[in-house]
């Protein structure tokens, strides 16, 4: 991204898109019972509350009545339908870490092993986005957390939950990723890239150059450590510089890093994410902080910057929801990458 003169003036920035991640799949309901919705009705109401507070993108993870993360496609369908009816303008972004389990003998016979993850493309009604990881990668979400972050919770140091998340990996090899993006695009679902580092961004660019990823580059830099980059100014600057000018970038991190990184995003004209999936504490850890409180805090700070907060319609335009490209040439041009080299062409390539 190029920061030419005036780039830090709010009149030259897009309005702020706030993503809310209020379902906190890594936590047990007992960790924050005041703010972790369990019933279907409560999960739908949480979306409404986030939207009313100022969030226009909802990162969705469904939870069953027993408090465990749902692996039923039928439940996810019901949840998406309920949220869509209650918040028709909100961008619904389903977390791509879900692996559905077959619910009937027919599903067992029909679904191949990869289909338990590819079925994200079969959610009905269709969500606006599904997130995707690029390149198989470690995702040790507790590495960057300190003891005070998890003390007294189901992720306390040494608990089974802590050890499970410490060893977590993301399987995202080339064949699976390309097939998943194809299935999402065929069903008019936008791919939202959740990237750990520049190497993964370069893999996305190569896919676009080969014509197997003809989509807008709507992405999140996930700076959580544990196989992902750390949320420091040097990593951030390098990643932002690597992003082409046509991309739309949101920043994400965890725990007490969340607010400082979001403030940087707001000042730079980028976009933000908050919610109990990322952080459950106030900055002094005096108490837990709900997702709605976190959204309201970002709205206040953005207004102090003088930067407007996008409504649902504006967020859809910024995120280019419903947009897909016909080939590699259009994809590269629209996302701001240099064009592919033509046969016999020498020197650096550029768009006329």
Task: Record the SSE blueprint.
Elements (H helix, E strand, L loop, with lengths): L17 E3 L19 H14 L3 E4 L12 H14 L4 E4 L10 H6 L4 H4 L10 E5 L3 E2 L8 H4 L9 H7 L2 E2 L3 H13 L3 E6 L2 H13 L7 E5 L10 H10 L5 E5 L5 H11 L2 E4 L16 H15 L6 H8 L8 H8 L17
Parallel strand pairs: 1-2, 1-10, 2-3, 3-4, 4-7, 7-8, 8-9, 9-10
Antiparallel strand pairs: 5-6
Helix pairs in contact: 1-2, 8-13, 10-11
Describe it.
The protein has 352 residues and is of the alpha/beta class. It has a single domain (13-103, 113-335), classed as TIM Barrel, CATH 3.20.20.70. It has 13 helices and ten strands. The protein has helices spanning 40-53, 73-86, 105-110, 115-118, 147-150, 160-166, 174-186, 198-210, 233-242, 258-268, 291-305, 312-319, 328-335; strands at 18-20, 57-60, 91-94, 129-133, 137-138, 169-170, 190-195, 218-222, 248-252, 271-274. An eight-stranded parallel beta barrel has the order 1-2-3-4-7-8-9-10, surrounded by eight helices. Strand 1 (18-20), helix 1 and strand 2 form a beta-alpha-beta unit. The radius of gyration is 20 Å and the shape is globular. The two termini are 18 Å apart. Its cofactor is Zn(2+). Keywords: Metal-binding, Transferase, Zinc.
């Amino acid at each position: 991204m190029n920061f030419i003169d005036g780039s830090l003036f709010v009149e030259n920035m897009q309005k702020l898109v706030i993503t809310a991640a209020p379902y906190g799949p890594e936590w047990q309901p007992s960790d924050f019972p005041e703010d972790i919705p369990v019933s279907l009705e409560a999960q739908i109401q949480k979306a409404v509350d986030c939207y009313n507070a100022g969030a226009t993108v909802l990162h969705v993870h469904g939870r069953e009545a027993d408090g465990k993360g749902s692996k039923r496609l039928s439940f996810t369908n019901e949840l998406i339908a309920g949220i869509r009816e209650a918040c028709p303008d909100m961008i619904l972004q389903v977390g791509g870490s879900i692996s559905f389990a077959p619910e009937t003998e027919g599903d067992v016979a029909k679904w191949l092993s990869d289909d338990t993850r590819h079925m994200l493309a079969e959610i009905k009604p269709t969500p606006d986005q599904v997130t995707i990881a690029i390149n198989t990668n470690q995702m040790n979400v507790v590495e960057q957390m300190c003891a005070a972050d998890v003390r007294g919770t189901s992720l306390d140091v040494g608990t089974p939950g802590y050890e499970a998340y410490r060893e977590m990996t993301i399987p995202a090899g080339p064949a699976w990723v390309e097939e998943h993006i194809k299935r999402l695009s065929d069903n008019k679902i936008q791919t939202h890239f959740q990237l750990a580092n520049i190497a993964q961004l370069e893999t996305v660019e190569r896919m676009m150059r080969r014509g197997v990823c003809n989509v807008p580059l709507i992405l999140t830099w996930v700076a959580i450590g544990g196989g992902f980059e750390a949320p420091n100014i040097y990593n951030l600057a390098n990643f932002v510089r690597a992003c082409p000018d046509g991309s739309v970038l949101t920043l994400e991190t965890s725990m007490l890093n969340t607010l400082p990184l979001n403030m940087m995003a707001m000042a730079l004209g980028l976009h933000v994410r908050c919610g109990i999936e990322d952080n459950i504490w106030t900055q002094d850890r005096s108490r837990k902080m709900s997702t709605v409180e976190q959204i309201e805090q970002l709205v206040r700070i953005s207004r102090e910057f003088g930067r407007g907060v996008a409504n649902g319609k504006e967020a859809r335009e910024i995120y280019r929801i419903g947009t897909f490209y016909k080939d590699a040439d259009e994809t590269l041009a629209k996302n701001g990458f240099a064009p592919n080299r033509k046969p016999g062409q020498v020197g650096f390539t550029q768009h006329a």
